[in-house]
Design brief:
Blueprint lengths: L6 E4 L5 E2 L15 E4 L38 H6 L9 E6 L5 H14 L4 E5 L4 H10 L7 E5 L3 H11 L3 E5 L16 H18 L2 E7 L11 H5 L2 E6 L6 E9 L7 E7 L2 E4 L3 H6 L9 E8 L2 E13 L7 E4 L3 H15 L6 E7 L11 H13 L7 E3 L2 E2 L5 E2 L4 H10 L4 E5 L11 E5 L2 H9 L3
Parallel strand pairs: 4-8, 4-9, 5-6, 5-7, 7-8, 13-17, 15-16, 17-20, 20-21
Antiparallel strand pairs: 1-2, 1-3, 9-10, 10-11, 11-12, 13-14, 14-16, 18-19
Helix pairs in contact: 8-9
The structure holds thymidine-5'-diphosphate and magnesium ion.
Organism: Paracoccus siganidrum
GO molecular function: ATP binding; ATP-dependent DNA damage sensor activity; damaged DNA binding; hydrolase activity; zinc ion binding
Family: Belongs to the RecA family. RadA subfamily.
Length: 454
Protein backbone atom coordinates (compact mmCIF):
# COMPACT_ATOMS: atom_id res chain seq x y z
CA UNK A 1 0.00 0.00 0.00
CA UNK A 2 1.30 3.44 -0.86
CA UNK A 3 2.31 5.42 2.17
CA UNK A 4 0.83 8.89 2.10
CA UNK A 5 3.60 11.46 1.99
CA UNK A 6 2.93 14.70 3.80
CA UNK A 7 4.90 17.72 2.73
CA UNK A 8 5.77 20.77 4.78
CA UNK A 9 6.41 24.10 3.17
CA UNK A 10 7.81 27.35 4.49
CA UNK A 11 5.29 30.12 3.84
CA UNK A 12 8.05 32.70 3.76
CA UNK A 13 10.49 31.24 1.24
CA UNK A 14 8.67 28.23 -0.21
CA UNK A 15 11.30 25.69 0.82
CA UNK A 16 10.00 22.13 1.15
CA UNK A 17 10.70 20.16 4.35
CA UNK A 18 10.21 16.50 5.15
CA UNK A 19 9.03 17.19 8.69
CA UNK A 20 7.66 20.08 10.65
CA UNK A 21 10.08 22.46 12.31
CA UNK A 22 9.62 25.62 14.31
CA UNK A 23 12.22 27.38 12.26
CA UNK A 24 12.80 27.09 8.50
CA UNK A 25 16.38 25.91 7.79
CA UNK A 26 16.37 27.63 4.44
CA UNK A 27 15.44 31.20 5.37
CA UNK A 28 15.65 31.17 9.15
CA UNK A 29 12.09 32.44 9.69
CA UNK A 30 10.18 31.20 12.74
CA UNK A 31 6.70 29.67 12.71
CA UNK A 32 6.39 29.69 8.96
CA UNK A 33 6.50 25.95 8.18
CA UNK A 34 3.04 24.57 7.46
CA UNK A 35 1.73 21.20 6.46
CA UNK A 36 0.53 20.88 2.90
CA UNK A 37 -1.95 18.43 1.44
CA UNK A 38 -0.20 15.18 0.46
CA UNK A 39 0.80 14.89 -3.16
CA UNK A 40 -1.58 12.60 -4.97
CA UNK A 41 0.07 9.29 -5.71
CA UNK A 42 -0.68 7.46 -8.93
CA UNK A 43 -1.27 3.71 -8.95
CA UNK A 44 1.92 1.96 -8.00
CA UNK A 45 5.20 3.74 -7.42
CA UNK A 46 8.30 4.30 -9.44
CA UNK A 47 8.55 4.95 -13.14
CA UNK A 48 8.06 1.40 -14.32
CA UNK A 49 4.88 0.69 -12.38
CA UNK A 50 2.37 2.79 -14.34
CA UNK A 51 2.50 3.09 -18.10
CA UNK A 52 2.29 6.59 -19.54
CA UNK A 53 1.34 7.74 -22.99
CA UNK A 54 4.09 8.01 -25.60
CA UNK A 55 4.65 11.63 -26.52
CA UNK A 56 5.06 12.33 -30.26
CA UNK A 57 8.50 13.84 -30.89
CA UNK A 58 9.39 16.14 -33.78
CA UNK A 59 12.51 17.68 -35.29
CA UNK A 60 13.75 21.22 -34.92
CA UNK A 61 13.20 22.08 -38.56
CA UNK A 62 9.40 21.73 -38.43
CA UNK A 63 7.68 24.87 -39.67
CA UNK A 64 5.89 26.52 -36.80
CA UNK A 65 3.98 29.70 -37.59
CA UNK A 66 4.86 32.58 -35.25
CA UNK A 67 2.22 33.05 -32.54
CA UNK A 68 -0.55 35.39 -33.68
CA UNK A 69 -0.60 38.51 -31.57
CA UNK A 70 -3.24 41.00 -30.59
CA UNK A 71 -2.21 44.63 -30.40
CA UNK A 72 -3.82 47.06 -27.99
CA UNK A 73 -2.76 50.18 -29.84
CA UNK A 74 -0.85 51.30 -26.72
CA UNK A 75 2.54 51.11 -28.41
CA UNK A 76 4.53 51.07 -25.16
CA UNK A 77 2.52 48.16 -23.77
CA UNK A 78 2.60 46.18 -27.02
CA UNK A 79 6.36 46.54 -27.34
CA UNK A 80 7.03 45.34 -23.79
CA UNK A 81 4.82 42.31 -24.47
CA UNK A 82 7.13 41.52 -27.39
CA UNK A 83 4.91 42.97 -30.12
CA UNK A 84 1.46 42.31 -28.75
CA UNK A 85 -0.43 39.86 -26.59
CA UNK A 86 -0.07 36.16 -27.45
CA UNK A 87 -3.31 34.17 -27.04
CA UNK A 88 -3.10 31.61 -24.26
CA UNK A 89 -0.10 33.29 -22.65
CA UNK A 90 0.24 34.05 -18.96
CA UNK A 91 1.67 37.40 -17.93
CA UNK A 92 2.63 38.46 -14.41
CA UNK A 93 2.82 42.19 -13.66
CA UNK A 94 4.60 43.12 -10.42
CA UNK A 95 5.10 46.47 -8.77
CA UNK A 96 4.98 48.43 -5.54
CA UNK A 97 1.56 49.23 -4.08
CA UNK A 98 0.13 52.42 -5.52
CA UNK A 99 2.55 52.54 -8.44
CA UNK A 100 -0.32 52.23 -10.92
CA UNK A 101 -0.68 48.54 -11.79
CA UNK A 102 -4.46 48.55 -11.60
CA UNK A 103 -4.59 51.74 -13.65
CA UNK A 104 -2.26 50.32 -16.30
CA UNK A 105 -4.16 47.06 -16.62
CA UNK A 106 -7.56 48.72 -16.69
CA UNK A 107 -6.34 50.99 -19.48
CA UNK A 108 -4.71 48.01 -21.19
CA UNK A 109 -7.83 45.87 -20.92
CA UNK A 110 -9.90 48.75 -22.32
CA UNK A 111 -7.46 49.20 -25.22
CA UNK A 112 -7.54 45.48 -26.06
CA UNK A 113 -11.34 45.48 -25.77
CA UNK A 114 -11.58 48.43 -28.16
CA UNK A 115 -9.28 46.53 -30.53
CA UNK A 116 -11.89 43.77 -30.64
CA UNK A 117 -10.82 41.36 -27.91
CA UNK A 118 -13.30 39.95 -25.46
CA UNK A 119 -11.76 41.30 -22.24
CA UNK A 120 -12.67 40.56 -18.64
CA UNK A 121 -11.25 42.38 -15.61
CA UNK A 122 -11.59 40.62 -12.27
CA UNK A 123 -10.64 42.59 -9.20
CA UNK A 124 -10.14 40.94 -5.86
CA UNK A 125 -9.15 44.21 -4.24
CA UNK A 126 -11.80 46.66 -5.32
CA UNK A 127 -15.55 46.42 -5.78
CA UNK A 128 -16.82 46.64 -9.35
CA UNK A 129 -18.33 50.05 -8.58
CA UNK A 130 -14.89 51.35 -7.58
CA UNK A 131 -13.31 50.03 -10.76
CA UNK A 132 -16.15 51.50 -12.79
CA UNK A 133 -15.65 54.89 -11.15
CA UNK A 134 -11.98 54.79 -12.00
CA UNK A 135 -12.78 53.80 -15.57
CA UNK A 136 -15.11 56.77 -15.88
CA UNK A 137 -12.43 59.08 -14.57
CA UNK A 138 -10.02 57.65 -17.13
CA UNK A 139 -12.51 58.14 -19.96
CA UNK A 140 -12.85 54.41 -20.54
CA UNK A 141 -16.53 54.05 -19.69
CA UNK A 142 -17.45 53.18 -23.28
CA UNK A 143 -14.85 50.38 -23.63
CA UNK A 144 -16.49 46.95 -23.76
CA UNK A 145 -14.60 45.49 -20.79
CA UNK A 146 -16.60 43.33 -18.44
CA UNK A 147 -15.90 43.71 -14.75
CA UNK A 148 -16.13 41.27 -11.90
CA UNK A 149 -15.21 41.44 -8.26
CA UNK A 150 -14.29 38.06 -6.83
CA UNK A 151 -11.57 36.30 -4.87
CA UNK A 152 -12.78 32.71 -5.00
CA UNK A 153 -10.64 30.90 -7.54
CA UNK A 154 -13.25 28.26 -8.30
CA UNK A 155 -15.90 30.91 -9.07
CA UNK A 156 -13.43 32.84 -11.23
CA UNK A 157 -12.51 29.75 -13.23
CA UNK A 158 -16.17 28.81 -13.70
CA UNK A 159 -16.91 32.33 -14.91
CA UNK A 160 -13.99 32.33 -17.33
CA UNK A 161 -14.94 28.88 -18.57
CA UNK A 162 -18.45 30.10 -19.37
CA UNK A 163 -17.40 33.44 -20.86
CA UNK A 164 -14.35 32.23 -22.84
CA UNK A 165 -12.73 35.68 -22.97
CA UNK A 166 -9.63 36.40 -25.07
CA UNK A 167 -8.08 38.30 -22.18
CA UNK A 168 -8.63 38.05 -18.45
CA UNK A 169 -6.93 40.42 -15.99
CA UNK A 170 -6.77 39.15 -12.40
CA UNK A 171 -5.99 41.87 -9.85
CA UNK A 172 -4.27 40.50 -7.77
CA UNK A 173 -2.95 36.95 -7.39
CA UNK A 174 -2.39 37.54 -3.65
CA UNK A 175 -6.10 38.06 -3.00
CA UNK A 176 -7.18 34.80 -4.62
CA UNK A 177 -8.34 31.97 -2.51
CA UNK A 178 -8.78 28.33 -3.45
CA UNK A 179 -10.89 26.09 -1.21
CA UNK A 180 -8.61 23.18 -2.03
CA UNK A 181 -5.68 24.68 -0.17
CA UNK A 182 -5.90 25.01 3.57
CA UNK A 183 -4.07 28.29 4.00
CA UNK A 184 -4.80 32.00 4.09
CA UNK A 185 -5.01 34.07 0.88
CA UNK A 186 -1.59 35.44 -0.05
CA UNK A 187 0.26 32.48 1.47
CA UNK A 188 2.72 30.50 -0.60
CA UNK A 189 0.37 27.55 -1.00
CA UNK A 190 -2.57 29.69 -2.13
CA UNK A 191 -0.58 31.84 -4.54
CA UNK A 192 1.09 28.80 -6.08
CA UNK A 193 -2.16 26.86 -6.44
CA UNK A 194 -4.04 29.86 -7.89
CA UNK A 195 -1.28 30.68 -10.34
CA UNK A 196 -1.03 27.06 -11.42
CA UNK A 197 -4.79 26.76 -12.02
CA UNK A 198 -4.96 30.02 -13.96
CA UNK A 199 -1.90 29.27 -16.10
CA UNK A 200 -3.27 25.81 -16.90
CA UNK A 201 -6.59 27.41 -17.82
CA UNK A 202 -4.82 29.90 -20.10
CA UNK A 203 -3.03 27.13 -22.00
CA UNK A 204 -6.11 24.93 -22.25
CA UNK A 205 -8.58 27.58 -23.38
CA UNK A 206 -6.33 29.98 -25.26
CA UNK A 207 -7.28 32.85 -22.94
CA UNK A 208 -4.45 35.28 -22.26
CA UNK A 209 -4.26 35.75 -18.49
CA UNK A 210 -2.65 38.78 -16.89
CA UNK A 211 -1.94 38.40 -13.17
CA UNK A 212 -1.10 41.31 -10.91
CA UNK A 213 1.45 40.47 -8.22
CA UNK A 214 2.44 42.45 -5.18
CA UNK A 215 6.06 43.11 -4.48
CA UNK A 216 7.94 42.51 -1.24
CA UNK A 217 10.17 45.07 0.45
CA UNK A 218 13.23 43.90 -1.47
CA UNK A 219 11.44 44.30 -4.79
CA UNK A 220 10.53 40.72 -5.65
CA UNK A 221 7.08 39.48 -6.42
CA UNK A 222 5.61 38.30 -3.12
CA UNK A 223 4.95 34.60 -2.82
CA UNK A 224 6.87 31.71 -4.25
CA UNK A 225 9.46 32.34 -6.91
CA UNK A 226 7.94 29.43 -8.75
CA UNK A 227 5.10 31.66 -10.00
CA UNK A 228 7.64 33.56 -12.08
CA UNK A 229 8.69 30.25 -13.62
CA UNK A 230 5.11 29.22 -14.36
CA UNK A 231 4.16 32.25 -16.42
CA UNK A 232 5.41 33.14 -19.91
CA UNK A 233 6.13 36.79 -19.27
CA UNK A 234 7.13 38.70 -16.15
CA UNK A 235 6.80 42.48 -16.22
CA UNK A 236 7.74 44.94 -13.51
CA UNK A 237 6.09 48.31 -13.21
CA UNK A 238 8.56 50.69 -11.59
CA UNK A 239 8.89 54.33 -10.78
CA UNK A 240 9.73 56.76 -8.06
CA UNK A 241 6.87 57.95 -5.92
CA UNK A 242 7.86 61.60 -6.36
CA UNK A 243 8.14 61.33 -10.13
CA UNK A 244 5.34 60.96 -12.58
CA UNK A 245 7.35 58.64 -14.86
CA UNK A 246 6.53 54.93 -14.77
CA UNK A 247 8.56 52.25 -16.49
CA UNK A 248 7.14 48.89 -17.51
CA UNK A 249 10.06 46.48 -17.88
CA UNK A 250 10.02 42.91 -19.14
CA UNK A 251 12.37 40.75 -17.08
CA UNK A 252 11.30 37.49 -18.69
CA UNK A 253 9.47 36.94 -21.95
CA UNK A 254 9.05 33.65 -23.76
CA UNK A 255 7.59 35.52 -26.74
CA UNK A 256 9.92 38.46 -27.15
CA UNK A 257 13.07 40.19 -25.97
CA UNK A 258 13.55 40.63 -22.24
CA UNK A 259 14.75 43.96 -20.84
CA UNK A 260 12.39 45.84 -23.09
CA UNK A 261 10.91 48.94 -21.50
CA UNK A 262 7.78 50.98 -21.98
CA UNK A 263 7.65 54.47 -20.53
CA UNK A 264 4.49 56.08 -19.20
CA UNK A 265 3.63 59.24 -17.39
CA UNK A 266 1.07 59.23 -14.56
CA UNK A 267 -1.28 62.13 -15.08
CA UNK A 268 -4.57 63.19 -13.57
CA UNK A 269 -6.28 61.23 -16.34
CA UNK A 270 -4.35 58.01 -15.95
CA UNK A 271 -1.20 56.80 -17.66
CA UNK A 272 -0.15 58.41 -20.89
CA UNK A 273 2.45 56.90 -23.15
CA UNK A 274 5.83 58.55 -23.59
CA UNK A 275 6.97 57.97 -27.14
CA UNK A 276 10.34 59.65 -26.77
CA UNK A 277 11.74 58.73 -23.35
CA UNK A 278 15.18 60.23 -24.02
CA UNK A 279 13.70 63.70 -24.40
CA UNK A 280 11.72 63.15 -21.21
CA UNK A 281 14.67 61.93 -19.14
CA UNK A 282 16.83 64.82 -20.29
CA UNK A 283 14.09 67.44 -19.98
CA UNK A 284 15.12 68.44 -16.47
CA UNK A 285 18.66 69.16 -17.54
CA UNK A 286 19.39 72.82 -17.15
CA UNK A 287 22.67 74.67 -17.54
CA UNK A 288 25.77 72.48 -17.76
CA UNK A 289 26.58 71.60 -14.19
CA UNK A 290 29.50 69.68 -12.68
CA UNK A 291 28.55 66.07 -11.95
CA UNK A 292 26.16 65.61 -14.86
CA UNK A 293 26.91 63.10 -17.63
CA UNK A 294 24.60 61.97 -20.43
CA UNK A 295 24.70 58.24 -21.00
CA UNK A 296 23.67 56.85 -24.39
CA UNK A 297 22.12 53.55 -23.33
CA UNK A 298 20.12 50.72 -24.84
CA UNK A 299 16.99 49.42 -23.14
CA UNK A 300 15.74 46.27 -24.82
CA UNK A 301 15.57 47.08 -28.49
CA UNK A 302 15.75 50.84 -28.37
CA UNK A 303 18.26 53.48 -27.41
CA UNK A 304 17.47 55.69 -24.42
CA UNK A 305 19.52 58.63 -23.24
CA UNK A 306 19.66 59.23 -19.51
CA UNK A 307 21.44 61.69 -17.27
CA UNK A 308 23.77 60.33 -14.58
CA UNK A 309 24.14 62.83 -11.75
CA UNK A 310 26.90 62.79 -9.14
CA UNK A 311 27.58 64.85 -6.07
CA UNK A 312 30.87 64.57 -4.20
CA UNK A 313 31.30 66.36 -0.88
CA UNK A 314 33.77 66.21 2.03
CA UNK A 315 32.61 63.69 4.58
CA UNK A 316 32.54 63.92 8.34
CA UNK A 317 32.06 60.17 8.64
CA UNK A 318 34.75 57.57 9.28
CA UNK A 319 33.40 55.52 6.38
CA UNK A 320 32.02 58.01 3.87
CA UNK A 321 28.58 57.66 2.39
CA UNK A 322 28.00 55.93 -0.95
CA UNK A 323 24.40 56.60 -1.89
CA UNK A 324 23.42 55.17 -5.26
CA UNK A 325 19.96 55.39 -6.82
CA UNK A 326 19.12 53.75 -10.14
CA UNK A 327 22.57 52.19 -10.64
CA UNK A 328 24.22 49.03 -9.38
CA UNK A 329 26.12 50.02 -6.24
CA UNK A 330 28.62 47.17 -6.70
CA UNK A 331 29.45 48.56 -10.12
CA UNK A 332 29.90 52.05 -8.67
CA UNK A 333 32.29 50.75 -5.98
CA UNK A 334 34.33 49.04 -8.66
CA UNK A 335 34.59 52.23 -10.70
CA UNK A 336 35.63 54.20 -7.59
CA UNK A 337 38.32 51.59 -6.91
CA UNK A 338 39.57 51.71 -10.51
CA UNK A 339 39.72 55.53 -10.41
CA UNK A 340 41.78 55.34 -7.25
CA UNK A 341 44.09 52.47 -8.23
CA UNK A 342 44.63 53.22 -11.93
CA UNK A 343 44.32 57.00 -12.12
CA UNK A 344 45.44 57.94 -8.61
CA UNK A 345 42.24 59.86 -7.92
CA UNK A 346 41.09 58.98 -4.39
CA UNK A 347 37.53 59.31 -3.13
CA UNK A 348 38.45 58.50 0.47
CA UNK A 349 37.06 61.09 2.86
CA UNK A 350 34.42 62.12 0.33
CA UNK A 351 30.71 61.35 0.40
CA UNK A 352 29.47 60.17 -3.00
CA UNK A 353 25.88 60.47 -4.17
CA UNK A 354 24.89 59.07 -7.56
CA UNK A 355 21.53 59.13 -9.22
CA UNK A 356 19.89 58.54 -12.59
CA UNK A 357 17.52 61.41 -13.38
CA UNK A 358 13.83 60.71 -13.77
CA UNK A 359 13.69 57.55 -11.67
CA UNK A 360 15.20 55.41 -14.40
CA UNK A 361 17.22 52.29 -13.56
CA UNK A 362 20.34 51.58 -15.59
CA UNK A 363 21.96 48.14 -15.40
CA UNK A 364 24.19 48.17 -18.49
CA UNK A 365 27.98 47.97 -17.98
CA UNK A 366 28.15 50.41 -20.89
CA UNK A 367 27.18 53.09 -18.37
CA UNK A 368 30.59 52.78 -16.63
CA UNK A 369 32.19 55.65 -18.52
CA UNK A 370 29.24 57.95 -17.87
CA UNK A 371 29.39 57.06 -14.16
CA UNK A 372 33.14 57.75 -14.05
CA UNK A 373 32.59 60.97 -16.00
CA UNK A 374 29.91 62.18 -13.58
CA UNK A 375 32.06 61.28 -10.56
CA UNK A 376 35.17 63.01 -11.89
CA UNK A 377 33.24 66.05 -13.04
CA UNK A 378 31.65 66.41 -9.58
CA UNK A 379 34.97 65.90 -7.83
CA UNK A 380 36.85 68.37 -10.04
CA UNK A 381 33.87 70.77 -10.00
CA UNK A 382 34.23 71.00 -13.74
CA UNK A 383 31.31 70.30 -16.10
CA UNK A 384 31.69 67.78 -18.93
CA UNK A 385 31.25 69.12 -22.47
CA UNK A 386 27.47 69.78 -22.56
CA UNK A 387 27.12 68.53 -26.13
CA UNK A 388 28.65 65.14 -25.36
CA UNK A 389 27.20 61.71 -24.68
CA UNK A 390 29.31 58.96 -23.13
CA UNK A 391 29.37 55.18 -23.24
CA UNK A 392 31.93 52.44 -22.64
CA UNK A 393 32.63 49.64 -20.23
CA UNK A 394 35.54 50.02 -17.78
CA UNK A 395 37.64 46.95 -17.04
CA UNK A 396 39.51 46.45 -13.77
CA UNK A 397 42.73 47.42 -15.54
CA UNK A 398 41.24 50.80 -16.32
CA UNK A 399 40.96 50.04 -20.04
CA UNK A 400 37.80 50.97 -21.91
CA UNK A 401 35.97 48.14 -23.62
CA UNK A 402 33.69 48.57 -26.63
CA UNK A 403 29.97 48.00 -26.17
CA UNK A 404 27.15 46.66 -28.33
CA UNK A 405 24.91 48.71 -30.62
CA UNK A 406 27.08 51.82 -30.79
CA UNK A 407 25.39 52.99 -33.98
CA UNK A 408 21.95 53.01 -32.38
CA UNK A 409 23.27 54.94 -29.40
CA UNK A 410 24.91 57.54 -31.64
CA UNK A 411 21.83 57.89 -33.83
CA UNK A 412 19.63 58.62 -30.83
CA UNK A 413 22.16 61.11 -29.46
CA UNK A 414 22.30 62.94 -32.78
CA UNK A 415 18.52 63.00 -32.95
CA UNK A 416 18.44 64.76 -29.58
CA UNK A 417 20.93 67.39 -30.66
CA UNK A 418 24.18 66.06 -29.22
CA UNK A 419 27.24 66.66 -31.37
CA UNK A 420 30.01 64.86 -29.51
CA UNK A 421 30.53 61.29 -28.34
CA UNK A 422 33.11 60.10 -25.83
CA UNK A 423 33.64 56.41 -26.52
CA UNK A 424 36.20 53.61 -26.25
CA UNK A 425 39.08 53.71 -28.73
CA UNK A 426 38.44 50.14 -29.79
CA UNK A 427 34.77 50.85 -30.55
CA UNK A 428 33.87 50.11 -34.13
CA UNK A 429 31.16 52.58 -34.90
CA UNK A 430 29.69 53.77 -38.11
CA UNK A 431 27.10 56.47 -38.24
CA UNK A 432 29.38 58.96 -36.55
CA UNK A 433 28.66 61.63 -39.18
CA UNK A 434 27.70 64.82 -37.46
CA UNK A 435 29.11 63.53 -34.19
CA UNK A 436 32.65 64.56 -33.22
CA UNK A 437 34.14 61.45 -31.63
CA UNK A 438 36.52 61.63 -28.70
CA UNK A 439 38.09 58.19 -28.55
CA UNK A 440 39.79 57.21 -25.32
CA UNK A 441 41.79 54.05 -24.72
CA UNK A 442 41.59 53.96 -20.95
CA UNK A 443 40.43 55.88 -17.93
CA UNK A 444 43.72 57.74 -17.51
CA UNK A 445 43.43 58.92 -21.10
CA UNK A 446 39.86 60.03 -20.43
CA UNK A 447 40.90 62.05 -17.37
CA UNK A 448 43.69 63.69 -19.36
CA UNK A 449 41.51 64.53 -22.36
CA UNK A 450 38.52 65.86 -20.48
CA UNK A 451 39.92 67.37 -17.29
CA UNK A 452 43.42 68.34 -18.38
CA UNK A 453 46.14 66.60 -16.41
CA UNK A 454 43.57 65.34 -13.81
P1 LIG B 1 -3.21 52.06 -8.73
O1 LIG B 1 -3.38 51.70 -10.15
O2 LIG B 1 -4.38 51.86 -7.83
O3 LIG B 1 -1.94 51.34 -8.11
P2 LIG B 1 -1.69 49.81 -7.76
O4 LIG B 1 -2.76 49.01 -8.39
O5 LIG B 1 -0.32 49.54 -8.33
O6 LIG B 1 -1.68 49.70 -6.28
O7 LIG B 1 -2.74 53.57 -8.74
C1 LIG B 1 -2.88 54.34 -7.62
C2 LIG B 1 -2.15 55.64 -7.74
O8 LIG B 1 -2.18 56.22 -9.01
C3 LIG B 1 -2.77 56.59 -6.78
O9 LIG B 1 -1.76 56.99 -5.88
C4 LIG B 1 -3.29 57.70 -7.59
C5 LIG B 1 -2.59 57.58 -8.90
N1 LIG B 1 -3.45 57.90 -10.04
C6 LIG B 1 -3.26 59.08 -10.72
O10 LIG B 1 -2.37 59.88 -10.41
N2 LIG B 1 -4.06 59.38 -11.80
C7 LIG B 1 -5.06 58.55 -12.18
O11 LIG B 1 -5.75 58.84 -13.15
C8 LIG B 1 -5.24 57.33 -11.46
C9 LIG B 1 -6.33 56.37 -11.84
C10 LIG B 1 -4.43 57.05 -10.39
MG1 LIG C 1 -4.22 47.89 -7.44
Amino acid sequence: MARSVTAFTCTACGAAHKKWAGRCDACGAWNTVIEEAPLSQGPGRGLGAAKGRAVPLSGLSAQEPPPPRACSGMAELDRVLGGGLVPGSAVLVGGDPGIGKSTLLLQGAAAFARAGLNAVYISGEEASAQVRMRAQRLGLADAPVRLGSETNLRDILTTLDAERPDLAVIDSIQTLWSDQVDAAPGSVGQVRASAHELVTFAKRRGTAIVLVGHVTKDGQIAGPRVVEHMVDTVLYFEGERGHQFRILRSVKNRFGPADEIGVFEMTGAGLSEVANPSALFLSERGQPTPGSAVFAGIEGTRPVLTEVQALVAPSTLASPRRTVVGLDSGRVSTILAVLEARCGIPFAGLDVFLNVAGGMKVAEPAADLAIAGALLSAREDNPLPPEAVLFGEISLSGALRPVAQAENRLKEARKLGFSQAILPEAQKAEGLDGMAPMRVADLTGFVGEVFGAG
